[in-house]
Amino acid sequence: MSEAAQLNLDATAGRINRAALDAALQGEACYQLIKARSLFADVSVFISAAQLQQMQGVISAVERVVRSDQWKMDNGQPATGNRCTKGVFFGYDFHLNSDGAHLIEINTNAGGAFLNSVLIQSQRDAHLPGEAVSLPCLDTVFVEMFRREWRLARGEAALACIAIVDEQPVEQYLYPEFLMAQRQFERAGIRACIVDPAELRARDDGLYLGPRKIDLIYNRLTDFTLQQHPDLLQAYLHDRVVLTPTPEHYERYADKRNLARLTDADELRDLDVSENDIATLQAGIPHTFVVQSDLEDALWHGRKSLFFKPCSGYASRGAYRGDKLTRRVFGEILQAEYVAQQLAAPGERAVADDVQLKYDVRCYVYDGVIQLLAARLYQGQTTNFRTTGGGFAQVRQLG
């Protein structure tokens, strides 16, 4: 057993300095909101150098495949929209176990980076094994990422106003993070507002919040195609606002059907993907395939080794472990758009005597570069923030 695995089984190892975290958060306007939510675990999660190397290898292979000119959507057409931006805060989510690191999904508007940045910075002086996995000066890294998105689309024009957009943002569980992002943008001299998309109006010369013109949208919506938000969609399609991430980023990376394509060796060879990358993807992504009604018998009999996910799902909604399925739910899955993924067990982290929680590891990535790693501790079928002792945990690499 590796040193990292041994430490993860020790509830006394890697406990964070909660007082230091509270002190760091007290400088944020959202401190009381964060205190009222179960956002942070008390322990760190440990990984080995080999696990980090494998995750980096899988991410790099995915990026090479998806960025290639041969990568098209299922309808055989390139995705529409502005292709110059890279897309902020991609989340590559992994399960780590004795068989290695397994990419279970990709998200294109992954939440939690600003929160985890504070967690990492607050523990700089804590005497914890290993090192936190992050780039230095994350506050600067994040702001520069948004400035780069703006420059890719608008050149050297000044970036004056960013809108952080989500439906009913004050009601979102991660609303405190929106406030943290707003504060970081404003400290960098960029006006920032937190907006419901219904408040935005498209005009011939841009997208507006009342009389204020919005330069860039930090998109946190789960309406990934923007079909429910026509003003925002039209402004994006007519290049009247810079949007990041975009519907195209979602279609190319985060639609779950892409996982099936990334684990299909024959299709990858047809796309001229190198054998090295094919081997990396086959080893690093659990085999995934699109659910079809003519596979009903095989799927039902093999369900205990499968995880079912809606193609356009998010936040684990509508996702089911096969061994928990009822016939009724299975019938609904057959009639909907789902993928089935070979089960890859999550890692486990001891948080108290005789209490172990599951965890996944999220790599926050921009333009193929890992900015930081964070873990999410939880109990149940899927990740959540309802588990006592769960929440975000810093990831520390050993060796």
Largest sheet: 8 strands, mixed
CATH topology name, in short, is Rossmann fold
Number of E strands: 19
Q: How much β-strand is present in the residues?
A: 25-35%
Report helical residue fraction: 25-40%
CATH superfamily: Glutathione synthase, substrate-binding domain superfamily, eukaryotic
Low-confidence stretches: 75-81
Q: What is the CATH-assigned architecture?
A: 3-Layer(aba) Sandwich
Please identify the structural class as seen in this structure.
Answer: alpha+beta
In CATH's first tier, which class applies? Alpha Beta
Radius of gyration: 21 Å
Shape: globular
Report how far apart the termini are. 14 Å
Write down the domain tally.
1
- Helix run count: 14
Describe, in short, the structure shown.
This protein has 399 residues and is an alpha+beta fold.
Could you explain the architecture of this structure?
The chain is of the alpha+beta class and 399 residues long. The protein has a single domain, classed as 3-Layer(aba) Sandwich (Rossmann fold), CATH 3.40.50. It is 33% helix and 25% strand. It contains 14 helices and 19 strands. It has helices at 3-8, 18-25, 31-35, 49-67, 113-122, 138-154, 175-187, 230-237, 247-254, 257-262, 265-270, 275-284, 296-301, 327-335, and strands at residues 45-48, 90-97, 100-107, 131-132, 161-165, 191-195, 200-203, 206-209, 212-214, 216-219, 242-244, 288-290, 306-310, 320-321, 338-342, 347-352, 355-366, 369-378, 391-398. The strands form four sheets. Strands 1, 2, 3, 4, 16, 17, 18 and 19 form an eight-stranded mixed beta sheet that branches. The chain has a four-stranded parallel beta sheet with strand order 6-5-10-11, with helices on one face. A hairpin with a 2-residue loop joins strand 8 and strand 9.
